[in-house]
Design a protein that fits this description.
Structural class: alpha+beta
Distance between the termini: 11 Å
Shape: globular
Order of helices and strands: EEHHEHHEEHHEEEHHEE
Oligomer: single chain
Number of helices: 8
Number of strands: 10
Helix content: 25-40%
Largest sheet: 8 strands, mixed
Strand content: 15-25%
Amino acid sequence: MTIDDIRFPVLNYLEYNKLIKVPDDILDNSGYDHKIKLFIRRSFDFFLNQEIKINHISQKIHEELQRTPNFIAEKKTLKEIGESTGLLLLPETIYPDFTHVPCFARLNSQNYPINAIFYSWLTFDNHDRISGTYTEEDARNNDQHKDLLIIPLYKNRITQATDTYFMINNDDLYGDKYNTNHRQWYGKIHDYVMSFLLLDNTIKNEKQVEETAKLKLNYQKVIYDKNNIEFIQ
């Protein structure tokens, strides 16, 4: 599968695996009004000047990642997986599951296509530090739980819900039914990324996990426009 800035224009904003600036051109293409654009722009605080792990997912692995039950058995290892910030480049377009979003929202998932996903996998405290909401009380709690923050993209636009609240999912919610506001919005997409984190961790630690042992996985590294991209097939 070809990797280029036509399919993934966000690559133009990355150098040496760091997001060097907010992709304002992409945000301008997204159809949001000025106030919402300012709000969404803050989501990029979690990615600016961070080391971005870029993975291009093959069709085979992509299909496995969408079968969330394949990885739920390993959910307990989520808390052991180290923090990371990354970008997933998908082989095809996927859509969120909005069937459990209240009807008054009048959402059509077809209006939220996704072919790339930024993700920030950090502890609650570290996400709070970046967002400026960290307090001394948080320090006393010393909570090592992690949550996942995503920014979904489709070609040259962002397809993010307008509230960052809907873009964050607690590690405890991975694979759960759509029974909270978080799960109603991007639960399916969070599941995809968390399944990737579990699979990636499994590969690196050479664990023989029944659900993934059948996959013959390989990492092929490619260099595209100064960025190191790992192709998982």
